[in-house]
Write a structure and sequence with these properties.
There is one protein chain. Helix content is 57%, strand content 13%. A hairpin with a 5-residue loop joins strand 4 and strand 5. The protein starts with a helix and ends with a helix. It has helices at 2-19, 21-46, 56-72, 85-94, 98-111, 160-178, 186-209, 236-248; strands at 119-126, 136-140, 148-155, 213-218, 224-229. The chain has 8 helices and 5 strands. The longest helix is centred in the first third of the chain and has 26 residues, at 21-46.
């Protein structure tokens, strides 16, 4: 009798599995994707969120060079950039509308004592599901140094700190390049620009804005991919080191 009961239960279970097989397959596939996603994010987080990019002695050279250059330009390096609260509120509620990003751009230029008449800002709004090779860039007309343009790419999931960091970096390019302060290699100029932006007082925003963001995104047919974003050329640990070095100097 007991064997008949067990056999009956097995038959019922098999019948239920057969009847709802599509839902069961869907459930296990979803579970598999979720577990893979979690593993992917953990792998990225292990990949070096706390790694330094530059060695201490190299970073110190950039810091000293930056301070020396800014001193020659009579720029006070003891200030800290503080975003106007009203502008910050407008930026958050409008999700970085062009009007308020332009206001932020002008605030940064004013803070750096830069001429806003000879430079323009171009803003591209890009879907957050796409990977961006560059968050921004600075160009100037080689024939007419007064014609300059900054372009930034903004995604709707960017933080306030990231947007400020991008603009601070590109405006610092403007500051350095317009005063003919440049090194031999492009990557050296990028590192000097990041360090100089911190020395200028944007470290508070950059230390957060330069952190890696990890997120799982899906395409039209539910294919999974990990989006790993980080703006800037130095790591946020380099930024922390630079801030600490400035405090101790």
């Amino acid at each position: 009798m007991k064997n008949y009961i067990i056999c009956g239960i097995v038959i019922i279970i098999v019948y239920i599995i057969f009847l709802y097989r599509e839902y069961i397959v869907w459930f296990f596939n979803s579970l598999k994707i979720t577990l893979k996603n979690q593993k992917g994010i953990k792998d990225i987080q292990k990949e070096g969120m706390d790694r330094r990019n530059l060695k201490d002695d190299v970073l110190k050279k950039y810091i000293n060079l930056s301070k020396k250059c800014l001193k020659k330009l009579n720029i006070d390096i003891n200030r800290k950039f503080i975003l106007n609260q009203d502008l910050e509120r407008h930026l958050r509620y409008s999700r970085f509308s062009e009007k308020y990003v332009l206001e932020l751009f002008n605030e940064i230029l004013k803070y750096m004592n830069l001429n806003s008449e000879n430079i323009t800002l171009k803003i591209n709004y890009i879907s957050s599901k796409y990977y961006m090779k560059y968050a921004g860039w600075y160009i100037e007309d080689t024939n007419n140094k007064k014609l300059r343009e900054i372009t930034i790419n903004i995604q709707n999931d960017m933080t306030m700190d990231t947007v400020i960091s991008i603009l601070a970096h590109e405006c610092t390019h403007y500051l350095l390049m317009s005063n003919n302060i440049k090194l031999k290699e492009r990557i050296q100029n990028e590192c000097l620009t990041d360090v100089t932006a911190v020395v200028l007082g944007f470290g508070k925003y950059m230390v957060e804005g330069y952190k890696i963001s990890n997120r799982v995104i899906y395409d039209e047919i539910n294919h999974r991919s990990i989006k790993k974003d980080r703006v800037g050329y130095l790591t946020y640990k380099d930024i922390e080191y630079t801030i600490k070095n400035l405090k101790n100097s």
